[in-house]
Structure formats: C-alpha cells, structure tokens
Known about the structure:
Blueprint: H1 11-31, H2 35-58, H3 64-87, H4 93-115, H5 126-148, H6 153-183
Amino acid sequence: MQYAQGQIATVPNIITIVRLLMVPSIVWLTVREQHVTAFWLFVVAGVGDAVDGFLARQFNLKSWLGAYLDPLADKALLVSIFVALTYLGQIPLWLTLLVVGRDILIVAGVSVAWLRGRPVAMQPLPISKINTLAQVVLAAIMLADLAFAMELGWVRQALIVLVGLLVVASTAAYAMEWTRHFRTPETPGP
Length: 190
C-alpha cells in the first residue's frame, strides 16, 4: 500500500481519532440505557468511518498512522459495544467471547509472525469484511431496537447466529492463511 509522504494530521486521521474518542461515550450511554443517544452516536461513528475511508482514497490522504488507527477505531467500537450489549443481556456471552477471541487470535498470530521474522501483510480477507459488516449491522439493529422499541427479536436472533457463523469462518480463514504463510519457504533477500 502506498502512503502519502509526511501526512499525519490529515482530515481522515482526525475523523478516525474522533471516532476512537467517541467509543467510551457510546459504551457509557449504552450501559446507562440511554439508547437513543447511543444509537445516533454509533451511526455518526459509522458514517465517520465511511467518510474517512472515502477521503483517504479519493484525495490520496492514506497514511501509515491511518492504516493503524482506522482498524483500531473499528475494533474498539465493535468489541466495546458487544461487551456493553452483553452486559445488558442483549447479546449472548458466547458470541462476544467468539468476537473478542477472534481478534485476540489475529493479534497473537500477527505478533508471532513478527517475532519469528516472518511478518504477515495484514490485508482483510473477504470473509473478514463480511464478518465485520454483519457485526456492525447486528450492533446497529440491537441499538435501534433498544432505542425505538422496534420489536426486532427474530431479526436479532438470526443476526446473532449469522455473526457467530461468520466469526468462526473468518477465524478459520485466517488460520489457513497463517498456515500457508509459515509453510511457504522464505525468499532470500537481494
């Protein structure tokens, strides 16, 4: 991936930092059962994610800082909201443990690869993108249902099962990628 030279304080990075700073407020509002405000802040964070990505691509404002901060902001929001919704009894504990466990395994795998001198290029797999989208939709549906009493019980249950299956599939796909990565002989340097 090519990054714009010397660009740290870009508009996309500032938006990403604001999204990251919004996470504690969204979680606090959720746990305090102020669901309407939590829902709208969650929506703003989601729109911010789309806007910062669009601006970074459209105006060549990609930076190494943004490459780290953007997924960090995404994961911080999703994991935090899943934990908060589990605390409220809205998302089953097993699902939150799967989501958090997957993320821990990914970080551990990247760390092991780095420690072994075989860093892995971190490109999200297609199944991972679908998994993340499903998690965002589940969190948004949960918050919307809590905020506006929409009676979406069956939709919520279907999404819980779907997200569970996607988390398992995504974890398996990353495990296969790492296995392939470590079985491939290292290419000698120039």
